[in-house]
Amino acid sequence: MAEKAVSKKEARALARNCRQGLRAGPKNRMDTAIARRFFEATGGEDRGAVLYYSLPQEVDTRRIMRRLLAEGKRIYLPQTSPSGKMRMVRFEGTRQLAKGPHGVLEPTGSKILDKRMALPILVPGLAFDRRGYRVGYGGGHYDRYLKNYPGLKVGLCYEACLLDEIEVDPWDQPVDILLTEGGEYAAKR
To answer: Which residue positions in the chain have pLDDT lower than 70?
Structure first.
């Protein structure tokens, strides 16, 4: 999409344009391919994973969620406080979801993930670059959470929203691998 480092503002605009152009049929096929790559990349993680409840324009994480639940594996989702602090809480079904401070569905439970479990964590982003850096929604929640996270950090992105390089700030935390409908990319730093 880009040949030089783009600003976060430019990256957000490019990603929004990219996502707005996705039609339901092709998006569904890309989401299915990306979910398949997740299980290939993590080896079908025995213990579970840390996910996020995707918004309609994001890569659909519910496919991954349904399969993990069907296999009896643990799922954790982000729960944020109005002050911006985020923690990962055990997800045990959609009846346990409510809109959080940012209007995103979050678990209402209280079983908090022990980071030492080092489960793979899916990291949302509007766009990613080939080094594994991302542009999120601007709150910094994931950058703070990922700072010392010991597990595999996984970004999900549509190939058309993958940039060569995004300008980064010192606090930005990259993912380890990126999964798109076209392949798996090890972050190049």
So the answer is: 1-3, 44-45, 188-189
**Beta-strand pair 105-107/97-99:** antiparallel
Structure tokens at 84: 């911006």
Please check whether residue 123 is in contact with residue 133, taking contact to mean a CB–CB distance below 8 angstroms: no
**Alpha carbon distance 180, 80 (integer Å):** 27
Strands 134-135 and 153-156: unpaired
What would the 3-class secondary structure string for the chain be?
A: CCCCCECHHHHHHHHHHHHHCCCHHHHHHHHHHHHHHHHHHHCCCCCEEECCCCCCCCCCCHHHHHHHHHCCCEEEEEEECCCCCEEEEEECCHHHEEECCCCCEEECCCCECCHHHCCCEEECCCEEECCCCEECCCCCHHHHHHCCCCCCEEEECCHHHEECCECCCCCCCCCCEEEECCEEEECCC
**CA triplet 165, 129, 80: central angle to 5 degrees?**
125
DSSP β-bridge partners for residue 77: 89
Token pair recorded at residue 111: 């079983």
Tell me if the pTM is above 0.85.
Answer: yes
Which residues sit opposite 186 in a β-bridge?
177
User: What dotted CATH number matches 8-186?
Assistant: 3.40.50.10420
